[in-house]
Amino acid sequence: MRRKKQNDLLTDVELEFMTALWSLGGGGVRDILARIAPDRNLAYTSAATIMRILDDKGFVTSTKEGKQLIYAPALSKDAYQTRSLQNLSAKLFDNTPATLVARLVDDAGLSQESLEEIRALLDRRLGDADD
Amino acid sequence: MRRKKQNDLLTDVELEFMTALWSLGGGGVRDILARIAPDRNLAYTSAATIMRILDDKGFVTSTKEGKQLIYAPALSKDAYQTRSLQNLSAKLFDNTPATLVARLVDDAGLSQESLEEIRALLDRRLGDADD
DNA sequence: CTTGGTCTACGAAAGGTTTAGAAGGTCGCG
DNA sequence: CGCGACCTTCTAAACCTTTCGTAGACCAAG
């Protein structure tokens, strides 16, 4: 059975848990739950269910260690960031990344510092292959 | 009563319809449905329901013209692009736009052309205050 | 061996999304 | 007037997401 709706995007809660797992590198349900916002008050079984779903969907791998399951990301955060950007670019920006960046740098809430950081990035990226 | 889950993001189908409406500027259900991918085969009443929901949520405005409702975006595409980027930046990039752009320009699928377009954008934006 | 703690798996409930049929209004034309 | 065409509104079904309780497995300590 395949996903039928989205390509391979995480739902809100799934992303919350993957973020915790990425920062951890790996761990059991209790470790992961400890990284979730404390005011969340999520039941342990809820967390376990989320992790099982992530496993089913292939976003994490699990290995039995003693009596508990240890989870590890099956997809790096970088890779997922790229995937999300591609999705957003396709859905909302006509697959033209330049428009996406334009909207980003037009955002008044963006600091000068951030802008310069971004240009430095681009200079580095374009400097190499420049002819 | 307000939305309870997301800030103010469109669902998949809602985005599909808003995209049609943005490209149209405004129109009735039949106009909008004509802009949706033709292999979609969506019933007219389904389209009407989506538009009513968008109206309820405040994403469009409607005015009665004769016997039909004419819809217009209550939110520009630019504004929604900005909103989406802010959301993605907060959820997945720790609110550091530079990281977002880094992931974007690291994407091997990005053409040299796009990269240069992006840098030109930044130069224009930063050129003023350059030292 | 039995009890208690910890774990995973299953199932259900509540809410949101997507689709579409049924019902009822309105308008123009014969 | 009455009919058909077209429109909106209501309602429901199917599915997905999120949350959690219950049940069953397993192990260690008394």
TrEMBL record, chains A, B:
InterPro entries: BlaI_family, WH-like_DNA-bd_sf, WH_DNA-bd_sf
Keywords: DNA-binding, Transcription, Transcription regulation
GO BP, sorted A to Z: negative regulation of DNA-templated transcription
Pfam family, one: Penicillinase_R
Entry GO MF terms: DNA binding
Signal sequence extent: none
Family: Belongs to the BlaI transcriptional regulatory family.
Name this protein carries in UniProt: Transcriptional regulator
Source organism of this protein record: Pseudaestuariivita atlantica
